[in-house]
Design brief:
Layout: H1 2-19, E1 24-25, H2 27-33, H3 40-53, E2 64-66, H4 72-75, E3 79-81, H5 82-90, E4 93-94
Protein name: DNA topoisomerase III
């Protein structure tokens, strides 16, 4: 019984480690968040801080992000949804 309880915990711990692995941002993404390797969660947090600081959420639809000169090279277009943003940022991270 205790072995069964420990197996999922061990499996989960491995997933957390991979999830928190520091990734190196591309030079385009580094212009927004800095060049230090960060876990994916911190990258997303820092990009959101940048978006809010620069008032880049679309005022009529807060789920959309309006790209400025620093975000346009990352997004590849002038506006993305917050769901697209995460996928597009992944292409600018290296393990």
């Amino acid at each position: 019984m205790t072995k069964a309880a420990k197996a999922p915990a061990a499996k989960q711990a491995g997933a957390v480690s991979a999830f928190n692995k520091p990734l190196t941002p591309s030079k385009e993404l580094a212009a927004v968040i800095g060049s230090s390797p960060l876990p994916r969660t911190e990258v997303t947090k820092k990009v959101w801080e940048y978006i809010k600081k620069n008032n880049l959420q679309d005022p009529t639809n807060k789920r959309n992000i309006n790209a400025d000169d620093k975000l346009r090279p990352i997004f590849g277009k002038d506006q993305v949804s917050m769901f697209e943003m995460t996928k597009l940022m992944s292409g600018h991270l290296k393990g």
